[in-house]
Amino acid sequence: MSHETVKGDAFENLLREERQFAPSPEFAAAANVKEGIYAEANADRLAFWAEQARTRLTWSKDFTETLDWSDPPFAKWFVGGEVNAAYNALDRHVENGLGDRVAIYFEGEPGDTETITYADLTERVKRAANAFEALGVAKGDRVAVYLPMIPEAVVTMLACARIGAVHSVVFGGFSSEALRSRIDDAEAKLVVTADGTFRRGKPSPLKPAVDEALAEDGHTVQHVLVVRRNKQDVAWTEGRDLDWSEAMASASPEHTAVGHDSEHPLYILYTSGTTGKPKGILHTTGGYLTQCAFTHSAVFDLKPETDVYWCTADIGWVTGHSYVTYGPLINGATQVMYEGTPDSPHQGRWWEIVEKYKVSILYTAPTAIRTMMKWGSDIPAKYDLSSIRILGSVGEPINPEAWMWYREVIGAGKAPIVDTWWQTETGAIMIAPLPGVTSTKPGSAQVPLPGIAVDVVDEAGAAVPNGHGGFLVVREPWPSMLRTVWGDPQRFKDTYWSRFEGMYFAGDGAKKDDDGDIWLLGRVDDVMNVSGHRLSTTEIESALVSHPWVAEAAVVGAADETTGQAVVAFVILRGEAELPSGEGADAEIIQTLRNHVGHEIGPIAKPRHILVVPELPKTRSGKIMRRLLKDVAEGRDPGDATTLADPTVMQKIAADLRK
Ligand code: WT7
Prior knowledge:
Pfam family, one: AMP-binding_C
EC number: 6.2.1.1
GO molecular function: acetate-CoA ligase activity
Keywords: Acetylation, ATP-binding, Ligase, Magnesium, Metal-binding, Nucleotide-binding
Bound molecules: 5'-O-[(S)-butoxy(hydroxy)phosphoryl]adenosine
Family: Belongs to the ATP-dependent AMP-binding enzyme family.
């Protein structure tokens, strides 16, 4: 982590954005939350959250204290309250006469579909809760979940929550080793998995990784429950492995949910830090559910009676936890769940799904948006996307060019875009426009949500004035904050609470523009220092992507003897671009792009080198692995690339560079 000074002045000419898009009067008038909500929350932050907790959730026992912050950084929210997550996501909707409302439109990768109502989902979760209990899973026990994007993933999470077991979802793309280390760290008693899933029309296995993970003794797992999804033959360990459908069929469909303490652990989710082994981020019940429900309603302006919501995130990431499972179901939403990839069997698959289900709220990641841009606007143009009324973005800063493309091509120039900043650790959205209130700016996440005390501070922890950059912090505890790192409270303190006295340090650089709106500048370790000037990788990437030839760009700071760091850019060119050809074309492309960056930001930001590559190394969650690019840029062998979605990408890049 960089501890060098962020010189605010160097940000001054960066990220100027003149374009603003005010909500239409009709949208504003009908919006779930209005401007007054900020004043309400400012007047009494804790009263605001207490009100959210009491109106958005049904408590089986009311809480007596909103926040106990007597032992920071260990927070307790809604102290003394009792609440059941599954009851709030399911039973109460059925009791309120909404049993026939569709909870999930499932779209399988091969094209099979399933429509699951709230009544259906409630019954499935009750059966699963009984089945888990029959396998000896009790309150407080950990359950590892290694499943594809199928309804059973949601059923498993909610069944755990119902009985007070703690789920630990491991992304299906992780290796058997990653799975084993997570099983061991959490001491999981049960693993829920599937034979496999489908990828690009073909069966793709999952269970072999579980078998491999459990091959060596010394683990805590007693049973493996296996969903038959792709119906491929799998090895079977008698006594340990059980068939999901058989277990569900023999379980009773009756199960009464009891309230769990507001601070009862809900789940562990592992996330990688800059160093060391992944951290098990622990979320608890009452505060987490409150902020998920509030943000899902306020930021996406959810109208549960009429909207069809689709969050494209996999259940293996926090976005899938907060904005597929908990937020939407607590709010009684109807949502789409899709098992496959965006380009199978064709690059219009997402838009076909939007058209088919009349999706009105779409929540996805900039990397996906840029990929779609690269494929060309003519693909979404073939589908009827007129149902879309809100577009969300999450995961990394969204370049203004991608933002504009999203707005124009997907949102028909009128759907508000909500760029949502948050982290696995924050549990729920922290910074985002409110679509009926905020005039949105391409590229900025803009404003802390009501009741959230986000700030940008300098090296000494003092708030920076508008127009300056620094470190993103949270000054006050918030309901869905992580409670600790599983099994390592010291690491929790060291990682998040030691950099600035009394503040949560997010690890991101940020800037306040002249209006006080917040711009995320990427992780602090992605901020470069070139000749004493602070430059954001994000900023230069945005500049590159704003050129019509560029589809995607990744920038790293490579060590340089004279300037400290030098800017090195890796770019993917757009398939549909009209590029120079013939002799000297490559040099011309590179010179044009260098000049373009110089023009957009200033000569200091001109990349020393621009390398045109066929692909960028990305993690399975879609984050560009800049560390590997840095290795290449600094002339080192990039080494271990096994966590990449496509481990061959680095070989392709290296081969290209040799040419
Ligand atoms: C990091 C957290 C939150 C779910 C997905 C990622 C970056 C996230 C934004 C955004 C700029 C963003 C930050 C943050 N990030 N959203 N809207 N604008 N940056 O969760 O894997 O825990 O990563 O993602 O750098 O620290 P995560």
